[in-house]
Amino acid sequence: MKKFSTAAALHVLLALAASIGSIGVVQTASAEPAARMPSSASCGFLPNAPDQHKVVRGDTLWGISGQFLKNPWCWPQVWGMNRQQIHNPHWIYPGQIVYFDRAAGRLRLGSPKGDGMDGNGGTEKLSPQVRSNGLGSDAISTIPAGLIAPFLSQPLIIEDGQMANAPHIVAAAEGRVNLGRGDKAYVQGDLADGTSFQVFRPGEAINDPVTKKVIAHEAKYLGTMKLVRPGHTSDEASTFTVVDAKEEMGIGDLLVASPLAPVLNYVPHPPATDTQARIASIYGGVENAGQNQIVTINQGSADNIDVGTVLQLYRAGELIADPISKKTIKLPDEQYGTLFIFRVFNHISYGLIMEVRDTVDVGDIARSPE
What is the pTM of this model? Predict the structure, then answer.
């Protein structure tokens, strides 16, 4: 199957060049603990890796790293990244060139031959531009925004009665039952000085494939509302207007303050500890999923999963009877794909399916890369 290209690996490659120039496998002396890495054998260079690659608009780190490395998620080991660097990447821009120094076993970041050359074989040690206020319009994003943007703020995972005291719609103007774009609504509850809100309705339960217990609910996103007039007393409703409606809203639907604009640059890395999670649900309620689709796993921040975590997908091996000994034998788990975690809650996380050779089913294993 063709490799899926996300910008997650491109920005590590050039990000590290910003701080350490051109390097190969580096041992950092920082007090920051090193990220847990897979074996060096799995993170080697491909024998047919190209001599160079020019970064162009639309490139992704995942795709570029896959041209050079056996596994695109191996940037932390190849570049000697520590945890602080993983969580604070720089931004990368088109026009830069990735050079593969085969003799040294290194990758170098440079620019086309021209002004500012340092005379070292047509490469210049460049520092990618850093945009402190967010991603520049020309920067290479980590993951294509169109695939995951709706999932960064919607749907919402509700755990442990989080929304028990959330503001809610108590009435609609002119006695309406359902609300659409431009309609006026009345809301009761603590707004915490917020003025822009998303509207949700409690949705389907997500069950742990192992314990069968409910671990969370996935709330259905309905649209957005803005505050027109706050209530002057605790028992007076606040007045809102529906800005947009994906579905009709109604009495009892819940409000959550709109999140800040998400940062779409994530660095891929293995989990900090050995992880063996399970696919808990497939978004959209379908039975199985394929490449570029969204799933949840039954682990989250409480289990040391964070944004950018890369897991390998496995189909659990069957139990069979040995025809000779008659004993029950378990066949090996079969690895068939990769999952990239991009949104994390306490006990559940959203992941984007990357490279797969088979369908993804609820209950499949998602574990640390080998």
Answer: 0.70
